Automatic annotation (TrEMBL):
Membrane topology, from the record: Multi-pass membrane protein
Name of the protein in its database record: Amino acid transport protein
Gene Ontology CC terms: plasma membrane
Entry keyword set: Cell membrane, Membrane, Transmembrane, Transmembrane helix
């Protein structure tokens, strides 16, 4: 079978893929953290986070119309700032994405064990479930692009359906009973309550927390060469996906707070949204939606992560044999390396997720500054390598990317760095050494390996 016969993702499959890459466990498991920060202003926090996500998504979409190669941020950074900077971006992005995939898979197993009464802290049980899940995802990938697209679309529709049912059921309950319990959250707010009085600082922190439920759009273009006309479809698909997700997120949190806002904050259930409803059927639908959502985002990660490494090999910045594909068009060598990293790194750290979350946040901030600046360079023809002759737009290629840089700087300033790099007032050397390893040592090792291969 030749490469030209491989089925690629069309526009609507890209939209569903983008949604699948973004909606994970956050909206199902952790809305209580946002509500506990700002109480009744939680929907506004999600709205603010949605605005930031849309601005940054437009920046990445603009980059996609100028650079259609796979690799996502790696390809954009390489075109903007040259081989060395692109190589560094590729290494840190690839390692972060690979290990983050493993951590997300572990989260699926731990959540599943918790939901069904198992012990999520039992290393043996988690490890067995973890390996089985990765085998299933590997089978999904190795059956080819057509089967992968089917699974991706099905999981995306499944998670969207559960959230839409939640919204419709909630609105129906409100209309039938005529009761709106939104104001009940005020009983927990203020002095002596579970929710402190809302300040500008606490609202900003809630918005930052809500923003992470929107991340993932930056990885959608990693496999752009497996998409139909990525330079045309990605700039339309990514913003559309963010808009759809924004509507669903805000609708979900608003309806949940109208039905039973106190339960969101006080519940001990793994899936916080399920605690909002007393109906067992609705609870089951939400639980299944959460599991499908977590599985789906792992499927998306299994597509994105290997293609970063493959893109670097295709560009001659990693050994060429890493870019080898099988007859179904799967980057088999890059996938095997990636799945090995995704399993071994989390397992070797006994599934400790703090470092991975921190590194993932750092890489995203790095991307959210570099790529918008690169887009401005594309507009003014200030770039290191050839780009596509795409139609230019000052609003989407200059103004919005610069706004994205300012918003990212704002997020960087508000991020709780002290809390991430310290434990009970002492430096967290585990996190510090991990960051040095990921951002300094690993790129050096990869660079030496690539140089040795070239020689």
């Amino acid at each position: 079978m030749t490469q030209t016969t491989i089925k690629k993702l069309g526009f609507w499959s890209i939209v569903l893929f983008a949604i699948n890459s973004i909606i994970g466990s956050g909206i199902f498991l952790t809305p209580g953290s946002v509500v506990s920060m700002v109480g009744a202003k939680a929907p506004l926090a999600y709205l603010g986070a949605a605005v930031i996500a849309i601005v940054l998504a437009i920046s990445f979409a603009s980059a996609a119309k100028y650079v259609s190669k796979s690799g996502g941020a790696y390809a954009y950074a390489k075109a903007s700032f040259g081989d060395r900077f692109g190589f560094y971006m590729g290494v840190v992005r690839y390692f972060s994405a690979s290990v983050a995939w493993g951590v997300m898979a572990v989260s699926v197993i731990k959540s599943t064990l918790s939901i069904f009464g198992g012990n999520p802290n039992d290393f043996r049980s988690v490890s067995i479930g973890f390996v089985i899940l990765m085998i299933i995802i590997t089978i999904v990938n190795f059956l080819g692009e057509e089967f992968f697209t089917w699974v991706n679309n099905l999981s995306t529709i499944g998670k969207l359906t559960s959230l839409v049912i939640l919204i419709i059921a909630g609105v129906s309950i409100l209309l039938v009973t005529g009761q709106n319990n939104f104001s009940q959250i005020n009983r927990l707010t203020g002095n002596g309550g579970l929710i402190p009085s809302v300040t500008t600082s606490s609202f900003v922190m809630a918005m930052v927390a809500a923003f992470y439920a929107f991340t993932g759009f930056e990885s959608v273009s990693s496999g752009s060469e497996d998409m139909i006309k990525p330079e045309k479809n990605l700039p339309r698909a990514i913003p559309l996906a963010i808009i759809i997700i924004s509507i669903i997120y805000i609708g979900t949190i608003s309806v949940a707070m109208m039905i039973n806002p106190v339960a969101i904050v006080k519940t001990n259930q793994v899936v916080a949204l399920a605690a909002v409803f007393s109906n067992r059927i609705l609870q089951t639908i939400i639980l299944l939606g959460a599991l499908v959502s977590m599985f789906g985002i792992n499927v998306a990660a299994s597509f994105n992560s290997p293609r970063i490494l493959e893109a670097m090999a295709n560009e001659g910045q990693m050994p060429h044999w890493i870019a080898k594909r099988n007859r179904k068009g799967i980057p088999i060598v890059a996938y095997i390396i990636t799945v090995a990293l995704a399993i071994l790194i989390p397992m070797s750290f006994l599934y400790e997720t703090t470092l991975v979350i921190l590194m993932s946040a750092m890489v995203r901030f790095f991307e959210f500054i570099v790529i918008p600046i690169g887009v401005v360079g594309y507009y003014y023809d200030k770039h290191q390598q050839p780009i596509l002759n795409a139609p230019k737009n000052w609003w989407t290629d200059v103004l919005i990317p610069l706004l994205g840089v300012l918003l990212t700087a704002f997020l960087l300033f508000e991020y709780d760095w002290v809390g991430e790099f310290s434990i009970h007032g002492h430096l967290n050397w585990y996190a510090i050494s991990g960051m040095i390893g990921g951002f300094v040592v690993l790129p050096i090792i990869f660079a030496l390996f690539a140089r040795w291969e070239r020689k």
